[in-house]
Design goal:
By secondary structure, the protein is an alpha+beta fold. It has eleven helices and 17 strands. Strands 14-16-17-12-11-15 form a six-stranded mixed beta sheet.
């Protein structure tokens, strides 16, 4: 009997697993783009809508290089309430960095001093200072950098990263330190909402307290004085990096005529002789393509009827119209046709009155040329009162036909059959005992 139960449990587990894996997921929208890119992994999103407008191998794990410092920034500012707090510049940490051959931003000029968190954050992001990353990690981690790294991983999970793991706060290559273009987009979008981040990553130069020379950004896209051909007028920040294993990496944002985009490029060729900034070339070309070819459209407003939903328990109403909860503002190619966009309700089962205007009834999937790329809420556009009689009879019917009721009846029947069988067996045994007496 136990073997049969185990077998049934195994079969049910397999069925559930297969049913879960069979659920299709919405794919990223595909727009025609003729830009030739060098980076192996790219994801570009519209920052206002979150819609992905260009993707290339966005879910392959890559080394993040200095883009790691974006997460270092997040964890630091979320755990230090006052950015005017002064943190110590420790000599022992600087010596470890020197012995490891890691690049420093110049905090060694302040050995033994205390600098404001703001100054250290600029040192972290502009020249990508490994010394700044280690000082912040040491301070927030209470002198234990692995504790800070654990916090980085917890934050990555909280943000929704599915293929990201950190082993250090600097970006040094490690086989267990990785991310994807998609996860890095999530990290950057989150970082843009943290204190001072947008300002820091848009700053070409910054002079720390007591210094005669400024910190200089390595992101040529925002540096008109030093960026040369890589300078891009509409760029607004964020961070770049490179290592032998990571190749060249970049997370860049740009804004033009009210359109804001974020582009993450990973694992572009790293040519130490030519030193071409291929990621910056890729991002600039994709930004130009998006600004010239994509625009905001509203294929449906909050007053646009999407479908009719059947209604139970109402005397004089058989269905109600469902409309979007808010205007649907999306980014599409400028030459799109209305027929390219379709909105399909995810559930058309009847609903039960009463219904109030504005109630969320179901969701709908928005398709562009057959590709799912957005989900919206559909709400009732009117009130529908319930009929007490119909409500009661429908409720009774639901109870009588519900799986739980039918299961309960089945259990009662089984128990009754068992009871009858046991009683019959008991009575037979009792009669045999009486005869033998």
């Amino acid at each position: 009997m136990k073997k049969k139960i185990r077998l049934i449990s195994l079969i049910l587990t397999v069925i559930i697993a297969l049913s879960v894996t069979a659920i299709p997921s919405a794919s990223a929208i595909s727009f025609k783009c003729d830009v030739t890119t060098h980076s192996d992994s790219i994801l570009m999103v519209n920052l206002d809508t979150g819609i992905e407008v260009y993707a290339k191998d966005a879910d392959t794990r890559r080394y993040p290089a200095a883009l790691t410092k974006i997460m270092t920034y997040i964890v630091a500012v979320e755990n230090i309430k006052d950015l005017d707090t002064r943190i110590p510049i420790k000599e022992n940490i600087l010596k470890k960095l020197e012995m490891s051959g890691l690049y420093s931003s110049g905090l060694d000029w302040h050995t033994g001093e205390k600098l404001t968190v703001t100054d250290v954050l600029y040192a972290l992001m502009l020249p990508r200072g490994n010394d700044a990353a280690m000082m912040l990690a040491d301070y927030v981690g209470g002198g234990d950098i692995p504790t800070f790294v654990e916090m980085m991983n917890e934050k990555a999970e909280e943000i929704g990263c599915e293929n990201t793991h950190f082993t250090n706060p600097t970006g040094v290559d490690d086989e267990d330190q990785y991310t994807t273009a998609r996860d890095m987009v999530k990290i950057c979008r989150y970082a843009l909402g943290t204190p001072l981040f947008s300002k820091v990553v848009a700053t070409p130069t910054y002079t720390m307290e007591g210094d005669d020379y400024p910190l200089v950004t390595t992101n040529y896209m925002i540096d008109a004085a030093r960026g040369g051909d890589y300078y891009y007028t509409y760029a607004t920040g964020i961070q770049n990096g490179e290592t032998d294993e990571a190749g060249m990496c970049l997370a860049a944002s740009a804004l033009c005529d009210g359109y804001a985009y974020l582009c993450v490029c990973l694992h572009a060729p790293y040519d130490t002789e030519e030193y071409n900034e291929y990621c910056m070339e890729d991002a600039a070309e994709l930004f130009r393509w998006a600004f010239l070819n994509l625009e905001f459209v509203s294929p449906a407003t909050k007053d646009t009827p999407i479908c009719e939903q059947p209604v139970n328990n109402a005397w004089d109403t058989e269905s109600i119209l469902l409309v979007p909860q808010s205007d649907l503002n999306i980014v599409l190619p400028a030459d799109y046709k209305e027929s390219d966009v379709t909105i399909v309700p995810d559930n058309t089962d009847p609903i039960n009155a009463p219904v109030s205007k504005g109630d969320v009834i179901t969701t709908a999937t928005v398709y562009y040329k057959g590709e799912a790329f957005e989900t919206i809420n559909l709400i009732a556009n009117e009130d529908v009162n319930a009929s007490p009689i119909l409500f009661f009879t429908h409720g009774v019917d639901r109870v009588l036909t519900s799986p739980w009721f039918l299961m309960s009846v089945g259990i009662v029947v089984v128990l009754f059959v068992v009871f009858v069988s046991v009683s019959s067996s008991y009575n037979k045994k009792k009669r045999r005992n009486q005869k033998s007496e």
